Amino acid sequence: MTRDSKDPSSYQRFYAVVRKIPRGRVATYGQVASLAGLEGQARQVGYALAAVKSSSAVPWHRVINAQGRISMRREGPGGSIVQQRLLECEGVAFDADGRVA
């Protein structure tokens, strides 16, 4: 039985999964949803991560889309650059098409 992704505790479940992503590694929104027990709720993971405060210990930058790319952030293109830089500082490489290599 899956829980309703609009349940406030769902965000906490997503955050718990994201906190377990090791430095230098990434996971997709769908993988996070599945590991949180909310299969098919990738969009909700995106909403949850968009709500993360910059001072949070949740490593939001380690979550990418199913195509292996960084998704556009609410802050606009600058947010994507920040995410890529944070990942590169952790040793994550990108190919010429902007996909995680």
Describe this structure in a few short sentences:
This protein is mostly helical. It has four helices and two strands.
What report would you give on this structure?
The mean pLDDT is 89. Helix content is 41%, strand content 4%. It has helices at residues 8-19, 29-35, 42-50, 77-89; strands spanning 27-28, 63-64. Helix 2 (29-35) packs across helix 3. It is globular. It is mainly alpha-helical and 101 residues long. The longest helix has 13 residues, at 77-89. The protein contains 4 helices and 2 strands. It has a two-stranded parallel sheet.
Order of helices and strands: HEHHEH
Helix content: 40-55%
Beta-strand share of residues: under 5%
- Number of H/I helices: 4
N-to-C span: 35 Å
In one word, what is the shape?
globular
Biggest beta sheet summary: 2 strands, parallel
Mean of all residue-level pLDDT scores: 89
Radius of gyration: 13 Å
Q: List low-pLDDT spans.
A: none
Q: By helix and strand content, what is the structural category?
A: mainly alpha
Number of strands: 2
The order of strands across the largest sheet is 1-2
